[in-house]
Design goal:
The complex is a heterodimer of chains A (about 290) and B (about 325).
Chain A (H helix, E strand, L loop, with lengths): L18 H24 L9 H17 L3 H17 L4 H20 L12 E3 L6 E2 H26 L3 H10 L4 H31 L6 H32 L19 H22 L1
Antiparallel strand pairs in A: 1-2
Helix pairs in contact in A: 1-7, 2-5, 2-6, 2-9, 3-5, 4-5, 6-7
Chain B lengths: L9 H26 L3 H15 L4 E2 L5 E2 L4 H8 L1 H19 L7 H24 L6 H33 L14 H34 L12 H15 L16 H8 L4 H6 L18 H39 L1
Antiparallel strand pairs in B: 1-2
Helix pairs in contact in B: 1-4, 1-5, 2-4, 3-4, 3-5, 3-6, 4-5, 5-6, 6-7
Chain lengths: ~290, ~325
């Protein structure tokens, strides 16, 4: 059940949503994101065709490159490149931009804004606003930070978005990440979705059975009680899963899904990515001089 | 508290990414030894629980809500090493699946949330709750205090990582390249929001869940075996002492700890009472700088060692005295 299933309160002035309703809606959005990932990864597009192992290495490569760049212009070029890649991978640039700017971008803007003022970053004044005058040094620093955060988050999110979770696990396994870690990650993802559904249903059940929004203390007591229930359910499920594993002959050795081999041409993307990132860093160093 | 990519420079994230690998290896080997084959489902469920607990909006004051990290709670339930792995996996899933927290910052996020919180929280809980036979009330208070302190310590560590950035990476004109706030802003900003708000959310959540479990399923609260906790506490203590010279990097004086000279320079006068009382006591090692050492970094380190030895010595002496007093009535009764 997703957030769309929750009916609005009928009649009169629209009441503020209760805590249970808000939480259920937020969890619904998270479950929706997990399902969206699978749907986007199934679309025909540029990034969807690339080997997951190459994509995992690319995330690291692009994130490190973004952290090394100092020129805001080159960071802006990375942001625009991410938008171009989104369009080529059947991801609508507007929804992609909304997702990146709505989370990492917005947080970076809020965090960087005070650093533009004379109070935090001294330097030549750009806009006079009394004690809160904006300085050139501060504005440049804030713009660089925001662009760096958006460029890193955008490319990482786009690559993850266009990759099935199972493909990601297979890639990690191929890249010699220990099998026990891959198996735990695989099980974690399934349990997260299952527990999120349980928690959402708890909140929806409360919402549908109460008329009053309740006091802060009552709500806190209820929420904490549900958290304790989730602890008990988690530990009981772990026992059940372990029993099920034993009954199927589990002896402690973890084997993950077979390692997939894809055509060697896939690595052309990685070489192109390395060359592009190298060029970005080289140009950045030249500009810095 | 999840640090996205872009806030930490390579000098910081590379160090933390490299440092976290052996910590994960140690944690994995400890967990394998204690949980055996059951580790995979228990770690997965621990990670899933760690992820989902952040979804609960906990009402605090005046209609505001916040979410708990739950790392202290997981450490109380599974032990600190298992909690370190579980919370780390939750952080990896959050970064890879939801873009919450950065890829280059994985090491920093895992260190701050998956190691600092479980270890500080767990050992503080053990210290305050006493043995397994402790009453539920004491355990509740212990868990709340431990969760509160652990998240505040983690916030201060995060603030410290942010605050180091302008010192480590800036252009010739002073423009910071990563997180822009210096230590004197980043550390108090992180500490204050956790002292005033998020710490309470964490404390309420942990205390409440411990209370609920204590009433319905107290087996879950049995103390987990900890490998020589004191050894780890001493190691952490020694590490902190060795790191003290970093404090010299911070410019200015701590807020409210100004000397008469600094007050005169800042405000143009010194309050008469402060001027009169300021010279009543002459410290043996003023400004944490022993007179016989010229290098300020070495001086700061020596002052830290001297102070630590004094504090530990006095505490040890008091503890011995109290233990002697506790034994005396029994020995009298025995006689």
């Amino acid at each position: 059940m997703c957030d769309a299933d929750i009916a609005p309160i009928a009649g009169g002035r629209k009441a503020a949503p209760s805590l249970a309703r808000r939480t259920a809606e937020a969890i619904g959005r998270h479950i929706g994101e997990v399902l969206d990932n699978e749907e986007v990864a199934a679309r025909p597009g540029l990034l969807q065709r690339i080997d997951p192992r190459v994509k995992v290495l690319s995330i690291v490569l692009f994130s490190v490159t973004a952290s090394l760049l100092r020129s805001p212009w080159l960071l802006l070029a990375m942001v625009l490149a991410a938008l171009g890649l989104a369009a080529a991978s059947a991801v609508h640039p507007a929804s992609f931009a909304r997702k990146v700017w709505g989370s990492a971008g917005l947080l970076a803007v809020l965090l960087a804004a005070p650093a533009m003022t004379q109070l935090i970053t001294p330097g030549p004044v750009l806009v006079r606003l009394g004690p809160l005058s904006l300085t050139t040094t501060g504005v440049l620093g804030a713009v660089t930070l925001v662009l760096r955060v958006v460029a890193s988050a955008g490319i990482a999110l786009l690559i993850v978005w266009t990759m099935r979770w199972t493909d990601l696990l297979r890639a990690l396994s191929s890249l010699k990440v220990p099998d026990v870690v891959v198996a735990t990650l695989a099980m974690t993802q399934k349990q997260i979705v299952s527990l999120m559904r349980t928690v959402q249903q708890m909140h929806l059940a409360r919402e549908s059975r109460t008329l009053d929004v309740g006091t802060t203390a009552e709500n806190r007591k209820w929420v904490v009680g549900r958290m304790a229930f989730v602890v008990q359910k988690s530990i009981k499920t772990a026992d059940d899963v372990y029993d099920a594993m034993l009954s199927r002959g589990f002896t402690g050795a973890v084997r993950t899904i077979s390692r997939e081999r894809r055509p060697g041409g896939q690595w052309a993307w990685l070489i192109a990515a390395i060359v592009t990132c190298g060029a970005f860093v080289a140009v950045d160093r030249l500009v810095a001089r | 508290m999840h640090i996205p990519d872009g806030y930490l420079g390579p000098q910081t994230y590379v160090v933390l990414d490299v440092a976290i690998v052996p910590l994960w290896a140690i944690a994995a080997s400890k967990v394998k030894r204690t949980l055996k084959a059951k580790q995979v489902p228990l770690m997965a469920l621990g990670a899933a629980f760690s992820f989902v607990i952040m979804m609960f909006n906990i009402p605090v004051l005046g209609g505001s809500t916040g979410h708990a990290v739950g790392a202290t709670l997981i450490a109380i339930l599974l032990g600190p090493w298992a909690a370190a792995i579980s919370v780390s996996i939750a952080i990896v899933v959050q970064a890879l699946m939801f873009g919450d927290g950065g890829i280059t910052a994985l090491g920093a996020n895992a260190f701050n949330m998956a190691f600092v919180i479980p270890f500080v929280g767990y050992y503080l809980y053990r210290l305050l709750a006493g043995g397994s036979g402790a009453r539920l009330g004491r355990r509740m208070v212990a868990s709340g205090v431990a969760a509160y302190v652990a998240i505040v310590v983690s916030a201060i560590v995060t603030g410290f990582e942010f605050g180091l950035q302008p010192l480590l990476a800036h252009t010739a004109s002073g423009q910071p390249l990563y997180a822009p706030y210096p230590l004197k802003i980043a550390v108090p900003a992180m500490a204050i929001q956790h002292l005033l708000f998020f710490g309470w959310v964490e404390a309420f959540a942990t205390m409440g869940v411990v209370a609920a479990l204590g009433r319905s399923d107290s087996v879950l609260l049995e103390m987990k075996p900890a490998a020589r906790p004191l050894r780890w506490l001493w190691a952490a203590f020694a590490l902190l002492v060795m790191l003290t010279p970093i404090g010299v990097l911070a410019p200015g004086t701590a807020w409210g700890e100004w000397s008469a000279r600094e007050l005169r320079r800042t405000f143009g006068f010194v309050p008469a009472g402060l001027d009169r009382m300021g010279n009543v006591w002459r410290a043996a090692v003023p400004h944490y700088a022993p007179a016989f050492i010229k290098n300020p970094l070495v001086g700061y380190l020596v002052a830290a060692i001297l102070g630590s030895v004094l504090v530990v010595g006095i505490t040890w002496g008091i503890a011995k005295l109290l233990a002697h007093r506790d034994r005396t009535p029994e020995s009298k009764a025995g006689a």
